[in-house]
Amino acid sequence: MERNELYPVFLKLQNLNTLIVGGGNVGLEKLSFLLKSSPNAHVEVVAPRFLPALEALVIEHPTVKLTYKKFNRWMLRKRHLVIACTDDLKVNKRIFDLSRKRGLLCNIADTPDLCDYYLGGIVTKGNVKIAISTNGKSPTTAKRLREFFEAVIPEDINTMVENLNEYRKTLTGDFQDKVNKMNEITETLKNKQND
């Protein structure tokens, strides 16, 4: 049976430099996705032209820059993540190859073989964030799972997280004692699910 071997990571995009190449619908989708989860992400979007909706989105985010030019390899300098979503497969492949040579993580939209990472479904409720991956097989399934989790996770879950954080700060003893105490408290969450 095939299994998902991806390793989930939560990135602090405000501390990294992301490049998106492409100013069309897919570029808008990728930028919107990043900014929904990380509104202060440092992103430069490069394309000769941009959709008006993409330009409007950037106005609301001062950490995002638009560059009205065709892609050039020097644009990869000082980057951490690259997303290529042009309508030219040759350009996208060139961006992937250049990114690989520089050790950059790269995502070529709608081309799983040319991706070091995927942008999965994300559910956010306060400090709680859940990432969903279908291993690049079915974005629609990830979307439906996201909708499910958004519906079932209570809006006040952040209050519980904050309260548990305050309680955790008061704990004494060694690491195992603290783990045992936190496990006792949170065990009731599992039991409520079974009720």
Topology of this protein?
Elements (H helix, E strand, L loop, with lengths): L16 E5 L3 H13 L4 E6 L4 H8 L4 E5 L12 E4 L4 H13 L3 E4 L12 E5 L2 E5 L6 H14 L4 H14 L4 H20 L1
Parallel strand pairs: 1-2, 1-4, 2-3, 4-5
Antiparallel strand pairs: 6-7
Largest sheet: 5 strands, parallel
Low-confidence stretches: none
* Helix count from the secondary structure assignment: 6
Sheet with most strands: strand arrangement? 3-2-1-4-5
The portion of residues forming beta strands comes to: 15-25%
H-E order: EHEHEEHEEEHHH
- End-to-end Cα distance, whole Å, is 32 Å
| General form | elongated
Structural category is: alpha/beta
Radius of gyration: 20 Å
Helix content range? 40-55%
Overall pLDDT level: 91
State the total count of DSSP E strands: 7
Summarize the structure.
The protein is α/β, with parallel strands linked by helices and 195 residues long.
Question: Can you describe what's shown?
Answer:
By secondary structure, the protein is an alpha/beta fold. It has six helices and seven strands; from the N terminus they run βαβαββαβββααα. A five-stranded parallel sheet has the order 3-2-1-4-5, sandwiched between helices. Strands 6-7 form a two-stranded antiparallel sheet. The protein is elongated, with a radius of gyration of 20 Å.
Q: Which labels suit this protein?
A:
two-stranded antiparallel ribbon, 5-stranded parallel beta sheet, alpha/beta, elongated
